[in-house]
Amino acid sequence: MEQSEQGSAHKYLTVRDHLATLVAQDLKVGDAIPSERRLSQQFGLSRMTVRQAVDALVTEGVLVREQGRGTFVAPQRMDFEMRLTTFGEEMRRRGMEPAATVLAAQVVAATPDVATALELEPRAKVHFLYRVRSADGTPICIEQAWVPVALAPTLFDDGPPESVYAALRDRGLAPEWGEDTLSAGEATDTEASLLGLGDSRAVLRAERRTYSVDAATMFSRACYRADRYSVWVPLSAPRPTLVPRRRTTEPAVAGPDPSDADAPVSVGATGGPR
After folding, report:
1. In this structure, what are the phi and psi dihedrals at residue 201, rounded to the nearest 5 degrees?
2. Where are the beta strands (DSSP E) in 160-260?
3. What pLDDT shows up at residue 245?
4. Helix (H, G, I), strand (E, B), or coil: what is residue 133?
5. 3-state class of 5 per DSSP?
């Protein structure tokens, strides 16, 4: 790298580090940062260089831009850790108070995709729970969950449970294993309204199957605010693919040989709030 390029990079990092320090030590969530003009004058740099530093912190989720208003300190992102825990447990672990707004809680006929996920006959009866999950009064995610009625007939007898996982544990169906499919997406108009999203409609979508003993006990879809969540995934050395335990009458399923570079590999992940 030439000396001029090194100098430009150094100046950009100086502004970025200055702003990061302001956020960490002097400013609180919702406070405005100094204007680009003021920062340009303070550091003797072009506004383009200053904007590059601000853009980097916006991308990292440290700052947030609001059209026509300015740039402000963003709410802290929560790590979406891949674990079989409840939403309430995860929020309380962060010192936040969880809550839920139930939009629907009823018994319905399983749609083809839900029946397949839960290994049920088409149109089998399932409990359906649709709700918005919040932390400290701020909507965090929208969740839809399906549980076979045959496994937990009384699940909704006393109203929708605060935690489906806890209700399953009480019935001897403690979640033992799960698999998540994560994807990035854009919120629909309904999702944006329920989550209180502004101009940015980026969301993290998670689809999960949860297993208890030898059967799939819950299938869920969740839509998380991308400005409040990031994904944290621990990694380990390759091993044979983990599969849920099946009924003893079925043959065991072997995972691919991790030493075979050409073998297709599927990734199962356990975790996330429920």
Report:
1. -115, 20
2. 177-186, 202-212, 215-225, 229-232
3. 52
4. strand
5. helix
User: Token pair 């944006």 is at which residue?
Assistant: 192
Which residue type sits at 108? Answer: V
Kindly give the pairing relationship between strand 138-148 and strand 125-135: antiparallel
Q: Under DSSP, is residue 167 helix (H, G, I), strand (E, B) or coil?
A: helix
Instruction: Give the integer Cα–Cα distance in Å for 101 and 197.
Output: 17
What residues of the chain score a pLDDT lower than 70? Answer: 1-10, 76-86, 229-274
Copy the structure tokens of residue 152.
Answer: 């937990």
- Residue 169 makes CB contacts below 8 A (sequence gap 6+) with 175
Beta bridge partners of 219: 146, 209
Q: For 34, list phi and psi in degrees, rounded to 5.
A: -55, 150
**Percent helix, strand and coil across the chain, each rounded to 5?**
25, 30, 45
At residue 9, the pLDDT reads 52
Q: How high is the pLDDT of residue 28?
A: 83
φ and ψ at 28, to 5 degrees? Answer: -125, 170
Inter-helix orientation angle 47-59/3-25, to 10°? 50
| pLDDT, position 167 | 94
* Helix 36-43 and helix 3-25, axial crossing angle in degrees, nearest 10: 120
